[in-house]
Amino acid sequence: MLNKSTVTPKGWLAFELNVLRRMEFKSAALPLTGEPNLGMYLKRWGTRVLANDTMQWSSTKSVADIQNNSEVLSDDEITTVLEDVYVPGYKLRNPALRNWFNETDSWWFDNLRRNIDRIESPLKKAVAMSIGMGVGDYTLSFTEDTLELRQPLSNIFRRLASIRPQPVNNGQNNTCSNKDINGFVAENYCDLMVLRLPRAHN
User: Fold this and answer.
1) CA distance 53 to 196
2) pLDDT the model gives residue 5
3) Which of 41, 39, 45, 71 is nearest to 58 (CA)?
4) What is the pLDDT of residue 92?
5) Which of 36, 80, 105, 123 could form a disulfide with 71 if both were Cys (CB 3.0 to 4.6 A apart)?
6) From residue 79, how far is each of 83, 86, 89, 195 by CA, in Å?
7) According to the model, what pLDDT value does residue 75 have?
8) If DSSP states are collapsed to H, E and C, what string results for the chain?
9) In what order do the strands lie in the sheet with 27-30?
10) Distance between CA 5 and CA 12 in Å, rounded?
11) Cβ partners under 8 Å of residue 52, min gap 6
12) pLDDT reported for residue 189
């Protein structure tokens, strides 16, 4: 299946699932996963999913939603992740945050990442990172005119964590990677490959 786009069109996931329902397969490879929604649905069908993307954000989300069969953040872990996130330090570990966020928000995200790094489980760490990306999307959705409607970011993190769907355990060893496409395809054999090709920029 090929789809040349930079963004999955609205309703495209339903179309993909409708087509895939008519096919027989037990394993599926996603060389360019993007958002992990398709992989999550395939897991619900009992399919073993091998996900990959060259972008780190996609790979991290895939670990949280596709590779992860059972792990969730506990209340204590959420408290630990949010500990002192608004307290500025001497220097941002990731100064690139200032390209996207104001100074206060940059410290929040920088401290959040520092605290997430304290989590031992790689799967839970990916879950926390995925929630943090959701907070980033929330933050960037506001303009100067709507900024007064924004809630504290720690509250949004807790809210997103509370409404996050439970992991789907399909009883399979699902894998996620952050490799170039050729290497991923050469290393993995599956019954089905679903490939979304990015649109070339002029």
Assistant:
1) 11
2) 37
3) 39
4) 94
5) 123
6) 6, 13, 19, 39
7) 96
8) CECCCCCCCCCHHHHHHHHHCCCCCCEEEECCCCCCHHHHHHHHCCCEEEEECCCHHHHHHHHHHHHCCCCCCCHHHHHHHCCCCCCCCCCCCCHHHHHCCCHHHHHHHHHHHHHHCCCCCHHHHHHHHHHHHHHHHHHHCCCCCCHHHCCCHHHHHHHHHHHCCCCCCCCCCCEEECCCHHHHHHHCCCCEECECCCCCCC
9) 175-177, 48-52, 27-30, 192-193
10) 11
11) 29, 30, 31, 32, 33, 59, 62, 176, 177, 178, 179, 181, 184
12) 87
> Residue 164 burial by CB count (10 A; 0-12/13-18/19+): exposed, middle or buried?
middle
Q: Which two tokens stand for residue 86?
A: 């608004």
Query: Residue with structure tokens 């996963």?
Result: 33
Which token pair is 24?
């027989």
What's the rounded Cα separation, in Å, for the pair 75 and 60? 21
CA 80 – CA 16 distance, rounded (Å): 39
Tokens of 134: 């959701």
Q: Tell me, what amino acid is at 38?
A: L
Q: pTM for this one?
A: 0.88
Return the structure tokens found at 147.
């900024």
